[in-house]
Amino acid sequence: QVQLVESGGGLVQPGGSLRLSCAASGSIFSIYPMAWYRQAPGKEREWVGSTRSDGSTVYADSVKGRFTISRENAKNTVYVHMNSLKPEDTAVYYCKLATPVREYWGQGTQVIVSS
Protein backbone atom coordinates (compact mmCIF):
# COMPACT_ATOMS: atom_id res chain seq x y z
CA GLN A 1 0.00 0.00 0.00
CA VAL A 2 1.28 3.44 -0.95
CA GLN A 3 0.64 6.55 1.11
CA LEU A 4 1.45 10.08 -0.02
CA VAL A 5 1.83 13.00 2.38
CA GLU A 6 2.16 16.57 1.12
CA SER A 7 3.64 19.39 3.17
CA GLY A 8 5.01 22.90 2.81
CA GLY A 9 1.87 24.86 2.07
CA GLY A 10 1.06 28.19 3.64
CA LEU A 11 0.39 31.87 3.12
CA VAL A 12 2.72 33.76 0.82
CA GLN A 13 2.68 37.21 -0.73
CA PRO A 14 2.37 37.67 -4.49
CA GLY A 15 5.76 37.31 -6.08
CA GLY A 16 6.95 35.02 -3.31
CA SER A 17 8.10 31.42 -3.34
CA LEU A 18 7.21 28.14 -1.69
CA ARG A 19 8.45 24.60 -1.91
CA LEU A 20 5.97 21.79 -1.50
CA SER A 21 7.03 18.24 -0.69
CA CYS A 22 5.30 14.93 -1.23
CA ALA A 23 6.70 11.99 0.70
CA ALA A 24 5.71 8.47 -0.36
CA SER A 25 5.73 5.26 1.61
CA GLY A 26 6.39 1.93 -0.05
CA SER A 27 9.04 0.69 -2.42
CA ILE A 28 7.54 1.53 -5.80
CA PHE A 29 8.11 5.28 -5.76
CA SER A 30 11.18 5.41 -7.96
CA ILE A 31 9.77 3.55 -10.95
CA TYR A 32 6.55 5.45 -11.59
CA PRO A 33 5.63 8.94 -12.71
CA MET A 34 4.63 11.48 -10.10
CA ALA A 35 2.38 14.45 -10.71
CA TRP A 36 1.20 17.59 -8.97
CA TYR A 37 -2.38 18.83 -9.26
CA ARG A 38 -4.22 21.71 -7.68
CA GLN A 39 -7.80 22.62 -6.96
CA ALA A 40 -8.90 26.19 -6.40
CA PRO A 41 -12.14 27.00 -4.58
CA GLY A 42 -15.13 26.38 -6.83
CA LYS A 43 -12.99 24.95 -9.62
CA GLU A 44 -12.12 21.52 -10.91
CA ARG A 45 -8.83 19.90 -10.04
CA GLU A 46 -6.19 20.74 -12.65
CA TRP A 47 -2.89 19.20 -13.57
CA VAL A 48 0.18 21.28 -12.71
CA GLY A 49 3.02 19.13 -13.92
CA SER A 50 4.64 15.70 -13.85
CA THR A 51 7.97 14.01 -13.46
CA ARG A 52 8.88 10.62 -14.86
CA SER A 53 11.09 8.06 -13.16
CA ASP A 54 14.10 9.42 -15.07
CA GLY A 55 13.48 12.92 -13.70
CA SER A 56 12.20 14.45 -16.92
CA THR A 57 9.39 16.95 -16.42
CA VAL A 58 6.45 18.53 -18.18
CA TYR A 59 4.34 21.46 -17.03
CA ALA A 60 1.01 23.13 -17.58
CA ASP A 61 1.28 26.38 -19.50
CA SER A 62 -0.06 28.30 -16.51
CA VAL A 63 3.00 27.45 -14.39
CA LYS A 64 5.72 26.93 -16.99
CA GLY A 65 8.78 28.99 -16.17
CA ARG A 66 7.65 29.59 -12.59
CA PHE A 67 7.30 26.09 -11.12
CA THR A 68 9.96 23.38 -11.06
CA ILE A 69 9.24 19.77 -10.18
CA SER A 70 12.02 17.53 -8.95
CA ARG A 71 12.24 14.15 -7.32
CA GLU A 72 14.63 12.53 -4.89
CA ASN A 73 14.16 8.81 -5.29
CA ALA A 74 16.46 7.94 -2.40
CA LYS A 75 14.06 9.80 -0.11
CA ASN A 76 10.86 8.74 -1.89
CA THR A 77 10.03 12.42 -2.23
CA VAL A 78 8.90 14.70 -5.02
CA TYR A 79 8.99 18.48 -4.79
CA VAL A 80 7.47 21.43 -6.55
CA HIS A 81 9.38 24.69 -6.26
CA MET A 82 7.00 27.56 -6.89
CA ASN A 83 8.35 30.99 -7.74
CA SER A 84 6.72 34.28 -8.75
CA LEU A 85 3.50 33.16 -7.13
CA LYS A 86 0.27 34.84 -8.15
CA PRO A 87 -3.09 35.08 -6.38
CA GLU A 88 -4.49 32.70 -8.99
CA ASP A 89 -2.07 30.03 -7.76
CA THR A 90 -4.14 29.84 -4.57
CA ALA A 91 -5.36 26.27 -4.28
CA VAL A 92 -5.03 22.98 -2.48
CA TYR A 93 -2.08 21.17 -4.03
CA TYR A 94 -2.08 17.39 -4.37
CA CYS A 95 0.50 14.87 -5.49
CA LYS A 96 -0.35 11.72 -7.37
CA LEU A 97 1.50 8.49 -8.06
CA ALA A 98 0.20 6.55 -11.05
CA THR A 99 0.80 2.85 -11.57
CA PRO A 100 -0.66 0.77 -14.40
CA VAL A 101 -3.41 -0.52 -12.10
CA ARG A 102 -4.31 2.42 -9.87
CA GLU A 103 -3.61 5.96 -8.76
CA TYR A 104 -2.61 7.13 -5.32
CA TRP A 105 -3.34 10.63 -4.02
CA GLY A 106 -2.19 12.59 -1.03
CA GLN A 107 -4.47 14.58 1.24
CA GLY A 108 -3.37 17.94 -0.13
CA THR A 109 -1.67 21.03 1.23
CA GLN A 110 -3.17 24.52 1.09
CA VAL A 111 -1.38 27.38 -0.65
CA ILE A 112 -2.73 30.90 -0.31
CA VAL A 113 -1.18 33.72 -2.27
CA SER A 114 -2.35 37.02 -0.89
CA SER A 115 -1.07 40.35 0.32
Instruction: Choose one word for the global shape.
Output: globular
Beta-strand residue fraction: over 45%
User: How confident overall, as mean pLDDT?
Assistant: 95
The percentage helix is: under 10%
Distance between the termini: 40 Å
The number of helical segments is 0
Low-confidence segments: none
The SSE string, one letter per element, is: EEEEEEEEEEE
Largest sheet: 7 strands, mixed
Class from helix and strand fractions: mainly beta
| Gyration radius from CA atoms, angstroms | 13 Å
Strand element count: 11
Please explain how this structure is put together:
With 115 residues, this protein is mainly beta. Helix content is 0%, strand content 50%. It contains no helices and 11 strands. It has strands at 4-7, 10-12, 18-24, 34-39, 46-51, 57-59, 67-72, 77-82, 91-98, 103-105, 109-113. The strands form 2 sheets. Strands 2, 4, 5, 6, 9, 10 and 11 form a 7-stranded mixed sheet that branches. The protein is globular and about 40 Å long.
Summary keywords:
four-stranded antiparallel beta sheet, 0% helix, 115 residues, mainly beta, seven-stranded mixed beta sheet
Concise summary:
The protein is mostly beta strands.
What is the strand and helix layout of this fold?
Blueprint: E1 4-7, E2 10-12, E3 18-24, E4 34-39, E5 46-51, E6 57-59, E7 67-72, E8 77-82, E9 91-98, E10 103-105, E11 109-113
Parallel strand pairs: 2-11
Antiparallel strand pairs: 1-3, 3-8, 4-5, 4-9, 5-6, 7-8, 9-10, 9-11
